[in-house]
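Researcher: We're teaching a course module on how sequence relates to structure. For the next exercise, students receive a sequence and then see the predicted structure as tokens, so they can try to spot secondary structure elements on their own. Here is the exercise chain.
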Amino acid sequence: MERFKVVERETKTKAYSKEGLGLAQKVDPAQKEKEEVGQWLTNTIDTLNMQVDQFESEVESLSVQTRKKKGDKDKQDRIEALKRQVERHRFHVRMLETLLRMLDNDSIPVDPVRKLKDDVEYYVDSCQEPDFEENEFLYDDLDLDDIRREMGENGGKLGKNGKKRGENGKKRRKTGRKCKKKGKKWGKVGGERVPL
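Model: And here is the predicted structure for the students to work with:
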């Protein structure tokens, strides 16, 4: 009987009363967990992008210095190492963005993403150390190869059903009209005419 009273009280509570506003703050534990993992993914992507910017600025400053002094082997080696590091970071950023998108679309559960957390944090924290060894099979358990291939074809813009999207994420429609001046084909993306 007590449980029934509690349920009845919750259903009769008005949305904008003090009690109703207090109830709105209660979040489903699964949704809260998903939001926390999504926030962690976003923060990790931002950290990796900041490191990429630092590496690129260092590459630029070293390349300016090596132009002045030709034949500096140490700086050339450092530039090559930084370029490899930038490529690895960009790979991880692409994979984490894919996971974030999949998590938002509910196409991947939270648990496999959470299992990656320790390895990804280790990579972010320790990638610049000289004795660092990267786990090359980090994302293999998630079977993201098919998704990466699809994303490579259309620049990462997929709809919910996996079909290609335009530059702004809207569905691309081919009309087959040709521009009179240049002979280019034009299509519509979200009501806008764009060259195909």
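Model: If you want an answer key for the exercise: The chain has two domains: 29-154, 169-196. The first strand starts at residue 172 and ends at 178.
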